[in-house]
Amino acid sequence: MMLQSNEIFTLSIESSCDDTSAAILCNDIVLSNIVATQKIHEQYGGVVPELASRAHQQNIVAVVDVALKKAQISMSQLSAIAFTNGPGLMGSLLVGSSFAKTMSMGLNIPLIAVNHMQAHVAAHYIDNKPSFPFLCLTVSGGHTQIILVRDYLTMEVLGQTIDDAVGEAFDKAAKVMKLPYPGGPLIDKYAQEGDPLKYIFPMPAPNSLNYSFSGVKTAFLNFINKNVQTNEDFVAEELANICASYQNHLVNYLLKVFLMASQKHNIKVLCIAGGVSANSGLRKSMLQLQSEGYSTYIPKFEYCTDNAAMIGIVGYYKYLQHDFSEVSVMPYSRTGV
Ligand code: KG4
Ligand code: ZN
């Protein structure tokens, strides 16, 4: 197998949940990053795994084709194929991994299995690279983790949610208010017009670097039910204030534990990653921390939610270490970094 040294062209594929994505990188530079979002799940109020894998099968060839064309790269120029190997939905992962394995065998180039959570953190290496060591708060629809990042690929989970992810706390609250899935971006949108201090929710008292969102969700449900009993139009009339207050509550809780980790490990370089890092309240609070002596980093919007560019950047660093995978490598559904 020939390894080219100067310009490494990586094709990367992400298919862990409900977005089919392919990217082309030249070394650590993103040449294209194509994402096909699956709209089919909206009507069900959440991702339906069987429909997700079917949609990946329908989308993947076209998405890879567009990524190559946009990057103006031919298949014969590719140096390696990186793909998400887990965690995620098994049926969805299998589509991306089978595709990547087949291409790697057909083109006789290295195959690189990538952990989705590590890739969310690595989205920070695409543009302004934070200095090591740094802490990363990875917040998505499936995960909430505080990660100590010592080097490009050396990461340690310091804390994580013991039940639901913060993305679920957004999405399920939106569902209670009868907003469509995924509700996180909508709560963010309505929150812009509301008063974040109008409604106060009970703050969990953390005694470790772990999170718990199940109580937060139940408190929100009880709050809505109680108010709807006295005014059935409560949600419609108060939507902006409810969204602003709930978002403010979630952001405060996220940062409270994140800053505990910062203090404990004496690290003031703080990053956020994952779908929920697209949240404007969280982004604003991270920026404000800069005036308190922290260096904070937020990925570009398109690298926050699931995308293949972040898979490609891990692929690039693994390529440099010749950390390749066998075609027998198996996808896994559970977490880790
Ligand atoms: O990382 P991601 O795209 O997929 C997973 O790996 O889960 O994250 C999706 C999550 C969903 O829960 C979605 O509601 C949330 O990110 N999300 C947001 C925003 N944009 C996406 N939550 C709050 N505010 C946003 N602006
Ligand atoms: Zn994700």
Descriptive notes:
The chain has 337 residues and is α/β, with parallel strands linked by helices. The chain has two domains: 9-121 and 304-320, ATPase, nucleotide binding domain (Nucleotidyltransferase, domain 5, 2-Layer Sandwich), CATH 3.30.420.40; 130-299, ATPase, nucleotide binding domain (Nucleotidyltransferase, domain 5). Helix content is 41%, strand content 19%. The strands form two sheets. A five-stranded mixed sheet has the order 3-2-1-4-5, with helices on both faces. α6 (214-230) packs antiparallel against α7. The longest helix is centred in the C-terminal third of the chain and has 32 residues, at 234-265. It is globular, with a radius of gyration of 20 Å. The protein starts with 8 loop residues before the first strand and ends in a 17-residue tail after the last helix. The structure holds 5'-O-[(R)-(carboxyoxy)(hydroxy)phosphoryl]adenosine and zinc ion. The site of 5'-O-[(R)-(carboxyoxy)(hydroxy)phosphoryl]adenosine has 18 residues, from α4 and α5. Zinc ion binds next to α3.
